[in-house]
Design goal:
heterodimer, A: mainly alpha, 3-stranded antiparallel β-sheet, B: mainly alpha, 5 strands
């Protein structure tokens, strides 16, 4: 299945940040493997109905974090991992060089499914996750 | 370096030549935008499908190489033909259809609406042509392009023939041209009596045809890339978005394949022209024209896929829950829809066998009026039949809450306005030109009288639709739906008639626009009634639009024909109405 970007214009998070975080998450989970070509700024802006500058800013931050590279001929591609591994280092909260195990990705998927089934909003789900993370840190 | 036979093309282009294509392109853009967002204000799977169809139809209409079919043939002195035989003339008649196809399909891609929802989705992948290309059709199209290149190559090595003036007997016969198959060359030399057509050097024609084929190939590739890369539609899912691109590619490839087939036919006409220095062959078979006809038929039959969401909704509608099949009155209204084109065509055929009927058939404005009158009388007869078979004396009558959709209302108003403008221009031009010569010719009087008669005749079915008895039986809302459908058929017919008459007026009285725009020369009386190309082109487009309107299914204008709330009690009537609308 092809990876999808979702931008919520009513969210308090700016659109460029939503794009940046989702792309970095897709790279971390391996949905966007190293070498994958990303759409051009103009193409993605047209698909999302956003200004080109918004996409350009997200790409610029991803490039600065070493997650993607802009190549003259190939366009924008996912950067290879610095140690030659599958998952590149990230600067978006993901620890560089650390892979995300499949069972963790599955668990997050199950959390989202259960939340949606219970009618919980995305914001509430994130709050729940944050509070659980803080509680586990205190233990 | 100037090659002999080649004249500068761009140097002779008047500024007005670019104005009309731009105006037509703007009109097509506006029409396509209207199609995709009407009538609910946002693109739906149905409107997207109609939009794709309109692009294909308009591209097809613009692709005609009719004006270039005898390109490269030098008319004999006795011939009244206006065949382009100069390179600039050939390039001009080839450029319009080639560019029209490409521009219309490209415009179509630019008319898709931007996302409007607050939650936007986009695939994070690079879209390539190969992801959506219908492979078999692309292969066949490529083969047709190769065949066109070969035919053009064969034309390139042919010599020129001098056209022969009347009563001039050639001295040196030359061998027959390759590509022509003559069955009998033993005819007596009747040549030279009335003049014979010649042709330009093959290399000149091949250069023009080759340039057209090259532009067509590169342009097709560019439009395919545009189709693959244009924005996603938020109202369609990923599957349908991909399918829509495949549909657009299908229609583009089929059209450019027929244009390439047309280039093959032009090369064939050139190759099979007999040497005027030789006795004319009794039978000459142009195989390349046959090939172009086969291409045309194959491309007509090569249908695009359907959007999966539309296929699902169609399947849903056929479920027994609708109850539409249980309504005999619905079946009758469906039959009446099928009878309308039969009535129109049948009347035209009847005119052919009636005494003096041919006189009417030869007058397009009158013929169109007679066919329209037949449709209106069929609608009226249908209402009488409904009342006789299913009318209930005591039951209430209810017209639809919203008798005409904004789309159809706009169309009707636009058609009436266009007709009145065309008529006013024709009247003014006629009196201006007539003032210079021997008085007005009143060529506009026939269409004007025909329009008055048809509008008056339309009142008959209108009154019957309004006042007939309730025919809905026990199904709530069905009678209203059926009245709505008849009303839509009536307005659609009158709108198409007005568009056709306006188009015919523009064609037959095209000189009038020369005077309206102040381009006529009062000091040149011989040119007072000279045709004006842009008006003729506009007229042809209006006639094509009239044909499109009259064959457009009612459902295009009737998203909710009943105006009845969607509650279980009336769902049967809704489905019935939808079923009737589906069948026009």
């Amino acid at each position: 299945m092809e990876p999808l970007l979702s931008v919520d214009l009513t969210s308090a998070t700016p659109p460029y940040e939503q794009i940046r975080s989702q792309v970095s998450a897709l790279i971390a989970t391996g949905d966007l493997p190293p070498g994958s070509r990303l759409p051009t700024v103009r193409r993605l802006a047209a698909d999302l109905g956003l200004a080109g500058g918004t996409i350009a800013r997200a790409y610029k931050e991803l490039e600065a974090a070493g997650l993607i590279q802009s190549r003259r001929r190939a366009g924008t591609v996912v950067a290879p991992a610095p140690d030659g591994g599958d998952i590149p280092a990230g600067a978006s909260g993901l620890t560089p060089g650390v892979t995300v195990p499949a069972e963790v990705t599955d668990a997050v998927g199950r959390l989202i499914s259960a939340g949606r089934a219970a009618g919980l909003s995305d914001g509430l789900l994130l709050d729940l996750l944050r509070s659980q993370l803080q509680r586990s840190r205190r233990l | 370096m100037l090659i002999p036979g080649f004249e500068p093309v761009l140097g002779g282009i008047a500024p007005l030549v670019l104005f009309w294509p731009l105006a037509v392109a703007a009109g097509i853009h506006a029409l396509l935008r209207w199609v995709i967002i009407a009538p609910g204000g946002r693109a739906t799977a149905a409107s997207v499908s109609e939009h794709a169809l309109w692009i294909g139809v308009m591209g097809w209409l613009g692709s005609s190489l009719h004006a270039a079919v005898h390109a490269g043939i030098v008319p004999g002195p006795a011939s009244a033909s206006h065949t382009p035989s100069s390179t600039s003339g050939i390039l001009t008649v080839l450029a319009w259809p080639v560019l029209a196809v490409l521009v219309i399909h490209a415009l179509g891609q630019f008319t898709y609406p931007q996302p409007r929802r607050t939650r936007r989705l986009a695939p994070l992948t690079v879209r390539r042509i190969a992801d959506f290309l219908p492979k078999r059709l692309a292969l066949v199209t490529a083969l047709i392009f190769v065949a066109a290149a070969l035919a053009i190559g064969a034309a390139a090595i042919q010599p020129a023939y001098e056209a022969i003036a009347p009563d001039v007997v050639p001295a040196q016969p030359s061998p027959p041209p390759p590509g022509s198959y003559t069955l009998d060359q033993s005819q007596p030399p009747l040549y030279g009596s009335s003049g014979r057509d010649g042709r330009i050097a093959g290399v000149l024609l091949a250069a023009c045809l080759g340039a057209a084929l090259l532009v067509l190939s590169l342009g097709t590739w560019a439009v395919l890339a545009l189709i693959a890369r244009r924005r996603q539609l938020e109202t369609l899912d990923q599957t349908d978005n991909a399918l829509l691109r495949t549909i657009a590619m299908n229609r583009l490839l089929r059209t450019v394949a027929t244009v390439a087939g047309g280039l093959i036919a032009i090369a064939g006409n050139y190759l099979t022209l007999p040497d005027p220095a030789l006795p004319p062959p009794s039978v000459s078979i142009n195989y390349l024209v046959l090939v172009s006809w086969v291409i045309l038929l194959v491309m007509w039959a090569w249908r695009p896929p359907r959007l999966s969401s539309l296929a699902v909704s169609r399947a849903d509608r056929s479920l027994p829950v609708s109850g539409k099949a249980a309504q005999p009155v619905t079946r009758l209204v469906v039959s009446l829809g099928a009878a309308l084109p039969v009535a129109a065509v049948g009347t035209a055929l009847l005119l052919l066998v009636l005494p003096f009927g041919m006189i009417l058939v030869m007058q397009p404005a009158i013929l169109v009026a007679v066919m329209t009158g037949a449709i209106l009388l069929t609608i009226a007869a249908g209402e009488l039949l409904l009342q006789r078979n299913y009318g209930r004396p005591g039951a209430g009558k209810a017209m639809p809450r919203r008798p005409l959709s904004p789309a159809l209302l706009t169309l009707a108003a636009a058609a009436a306005a266009v007709f009145l403008i065309a008529l006013a221009a024709a009247v003014r031009g006629d009196f201006t030109a007539g003032g210079i010569l021997y008085g007005p010719e009143y060529g506009w009087a026939g269409p004007a009288v025909a329009a008055v008669v048809i509008v008056a005749l339309a009142v008959v079915p209108l009154l019957l639709i309004r006042h007939r008895r309730n025919c809905g039986g026990d199904v709530s809302g069905l009678d209203t739906a059926l009245r709505g459908i008849s009303l839509y058929r009536l307005v659609r017919t009158v709108s198409a008639f007005l568009l056709a008459q306006a188009g015919l007026l523009l064609i037959s009285e095209s000189y009038a626009w020369r005077w309206v725009f102040g381009l006529g020369n009062p000091l040149a009386p011989a040119d007072a009634y000279q045709q004006w190309g842009p008006a003729v082109l506009g007229g042809a487009l209006l006639c094509a639009a009239a044909v499109v309107v009259v064959v457009t299914p009612v459902r295009f204008f009737v998203p909710d024909v009943t105006g009845v709330p969607d509650v279980p009690e009336v769902r049967g009537s809704r489905a019935a109405a939808a079923d009737v609308a589906e069948h026009r």
